[in-house]
């Protein structure tokens, strides 16, 4: 569309130039013919007649063009005749284009109106083309700016969504981990309660061993005292027991001393310390004292059970609950 408008402008200008050249050529030809008829005199009456005829045609053109669009009149007229001088000085001079047209041939009102309509249509067409260009450019800039804003907002929304998604994923992981830890702690708590109940029952059962089976208790005392002999490896030691277990402790000392001499080849003398016996609430067992009272080995049933809870706890857990699939290393 823009290219077509430019082509029409160029055609219109070319037509104007061609018409202008034809008018100028016709005028020069008529001037030559008139000068030839007048004998080539510069002051002949033809110039006055031509100027007078041009002056008579000026009012019609002035009425079509309008006084406001014409430049101010000159101070002196170019016609020598006083009558025509008065007429011309009262009117402003025409532009160069209209002067050439008036000198070449007179235009009727319809022709002038037609020319004006053509010029008006041409100007309107130019204005419409320019408006279309501006509108197209504005639409293009609007589309570019809109696309830019859409991309920016889309990127901002994507960033915000990604941030919220990460926060939601992290919150979900924290919640899952919290629930898992709570469940694990609940399971561990239940297992520990079961172990505590089991060891409590063991304590109650151990406290009845001495009263239920005297022969078995005698054998157990002998083994506990022999273990103390091996650990201290001294000639003289003291044995502490409950008051009701003094006789059983003396018999156990005799058997343990014979076994120690047989295995080690060394005599050992052990006496029961009746001045500091074990508490009557004790489940049983003995305490072996050596090193002139500085070393004491606690071989009571309560202490042995406590050591069992610590040392044998993994084996007890594996027996009760099975192997831990998450455990990789074993002592």
Automatic annotation (TrEMBL):
It holds the Pfam family vATP-synt_E. InterPro entries: ATPase_E_C, ATPase_V1_Esu. Keywords: Ion transport, Transport. It comes from Penicillium brasilianum. The keyword Lyase does not apply. GO terms for molecular function: proton-transporting ATPase activity, rotational mechanism. One of its GO terms (cellular component) is proton-transporting two-sector ATPase complex, catalytic domain. Belongs to the V-ATPase E subunit family. The keyword Transport applies. This is Putative Vacuolar ATP synthase subunit E.
């Amino acid at each position: 569309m823009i290219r077509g408008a430019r082509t029409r402008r160029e055609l219109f200008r070319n037509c104007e130039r061609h018409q202008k050249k034809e008018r100028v050529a016709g005028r020069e030809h008529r001037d030559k013919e008139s000068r030839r008829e007048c004998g080539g005199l510069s002051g002949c009456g033809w110039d006055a007649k031509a100027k007078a005829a041009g002056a008579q045609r000026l009012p019609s053109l002035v009425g079509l063009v309008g006084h406001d669009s014409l430049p101010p009149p000159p101070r002196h007229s170019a016609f020598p005749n006083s009558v025509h001088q008065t007429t011309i000085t009262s009117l402003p001079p025409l532009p160069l284009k209209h002067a050439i047209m008036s000198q070449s041939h007179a235009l009727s009102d319809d022709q002038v109106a037609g020319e004006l309509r053509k010029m008006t249509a041409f100007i309107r067409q130019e204005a419409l083309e320019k408006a279309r260009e501006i509108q197209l450019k504005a639409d293009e800039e609007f589309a570019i700016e809109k696309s830019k804003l859409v991309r920016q907002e889309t990127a901002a929304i994507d960033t915000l969504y990604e941030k919220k998604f990460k926060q939601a994923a992290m919150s979900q992981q924290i919640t899952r981990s919290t629930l898992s830890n709570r469940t694990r702690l609940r399971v561990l708590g239940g297992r520990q309660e079961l172990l505590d109940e089991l060891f409590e029952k063991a304590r109650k059962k151990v406290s009845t061993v001495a009263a239920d089976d005297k022969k078995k208790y005698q054998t157990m005392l002998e083994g506990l005292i022999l273990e103390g002999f091996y650990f201290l490896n001294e000639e003289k030691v003291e044995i502490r027991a409950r008051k009701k277990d003094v006789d059983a402790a003396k018999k156990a000392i005799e058997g343990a001393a014979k076994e120690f001499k047989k295995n080690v080849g060394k005599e050992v003398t052990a006496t029961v310390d009746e001045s500091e016996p074990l508490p009557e609430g004790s489940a049983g067992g003995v305490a072996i004292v050596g090193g002139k009272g500085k070393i004491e080995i606690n071989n009571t049933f309560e202490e042995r059970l406590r050591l069992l809870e610590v040392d044998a706890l993994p084996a007890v857990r594996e027996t009760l609950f099975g192997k831990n699939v998450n455990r990789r290393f074993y002592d």
